[in-house]
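User: quick one, fold this
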Amino acid sequence: MSRHDDQVSLKDMLGHAKEAIEILGNTSREELMDKRVTQLALTRLMEIVGEAANRVSQETKQNRPKILWAQIIGMRNRLVHGYDVVDYDLLWDTVTNDLPPLITELKKIVRENS
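Assistant:
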């Protein structure tokens, strides 16, 4: 992929990660268990973050070791292929704890490449 394509994928990751945090808002882990629409929205957004990460070139991935590429892509694969056994506790934890630092890193990369 060209650098332009990487930039598009990185922006997709950033936008969808930010949207996931916005949708979750102040929803507690327990509240998420009863909010089916929120569960579905977060699942889809995380699938897109992972798919966009998968489209980033190996060169960019190697140059950005702070981003846990394999884990992000692995989460996407678990959500897509294990759609019938989604762990919403893990999903809540990922959105709450893992996305904010990912967003910070993605903002830096997108800004540097603009």
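User: anything notable?
Assistant: Residues 88-113 form the longest helix (26 residues).
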